Amino acid sequence: MTGMSDASGTHTPNTGAPVGADLDGLDFKEDWEYASVVGMLMYLAANTRANFVYPVHQEARFTHRPKYSHTLEIKRIKRYLKNTKDMDIILHPNEYFKLS
């Protein structure tokens, strides 16, 4: 997808700083489609792992005109997923968990 099979992992999906438009930044020049990768990450975030929804949605804002800095953030999210691929969110319902 983004050619990062040998990349090292990271413990956080983003740097913590807000993602900006980076109008003067370098252009996006990768051999993968930015919008397609963002779409895949949005699917994963919405359906499997809620802990990286915010960083993915931050990057989704720039699908119309991604820059190199946005590429780095996407790659960081992928490194986070690689590092945490064995983590799950498991809910064990009992009589105390009720939907109202």
Number of alpha- plus pi-helical segments: 3
The major sheet is characterized as: none
- CA radius of gyration is 16 Å
Give the overall shape, derived from the CA principal axes.
Answer: elongated
Mean pLDDT: 83
Give the DSSP E fraction (strand runs of 2 or more residues): under 5%
Structural class: mainly alpha
What is the N-to-C order of secondary-structure elements (H for helix, E for strand)?
Answer: HHH
The low-pLDDT segments are: none
Number of DSSP E strands: 0
Describe what you observe in this structure:
This protein has 100 residues and is mainly α. It has a domain at 34-83. It is 38% helix and 0% strand. The protein has three helices and no strands. The radius of gyration is 16 Å and the shape is elongated. The mean pLDDT is 83.
Describe the protein's topology.
Elements: H1 34-47, H2 53-60, H3 68-83
Helix pairs in contact: 1-2
Spell out the key features of this protein.
100 residues, mainly alpha, 3 helices, 0% strand
In short:
It is built from three helices and no strands.
